[in-house]
């Protein structure tokens, strides 16, 4: 159940960001998070959003800019504002 909720939230955010004209990559390969994060760094993706069961339970999404040391937990409205501000 919870994995399906994460998948649905990821697909919805993906569609919403694309609808705003923001280029998005959805990594749904099912790899461990560390492997996916390493690939994100190799590719040079400037912003990362992580949707987790725990985050969904509290209404929070994890956001991190590539040039930032730490990630931050944001609600969806804050996340959308931050992504729009940080996107070229």
From TrEMBL:
GO terms for molecular function: ligase activity. SUPFAM superfamilies: Class II aaRS ABD-related. Its EC number is 6.1.1.-. Pfam families: HGTP_anticodon. The keyword Ligase applies. The keyword Transferase does not apply. Residues 5-85 form the Anticodon-binding domain. Keywords: Ligase. This is Anticodon-binding domain protein.
């Amino acid at each position: 159940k919870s994995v399906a909720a994460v998948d649905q939230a990821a697909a919805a955010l993906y569609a919403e960001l694309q609808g705003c004209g923001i280029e998005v990559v959805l990594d749904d390969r099912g790899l461990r998070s560390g492997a996916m994060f390493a690939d994100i760094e190799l590719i040079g993706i400037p912003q990362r959003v992580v949707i987790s069961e725990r985050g969904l339970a509290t209404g929070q999404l994890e956001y991190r800019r590539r040039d930032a040391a730490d990630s931050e937990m944001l609600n969806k409205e804050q996340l959308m504002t931050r992504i729009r501000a940080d996107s070229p």
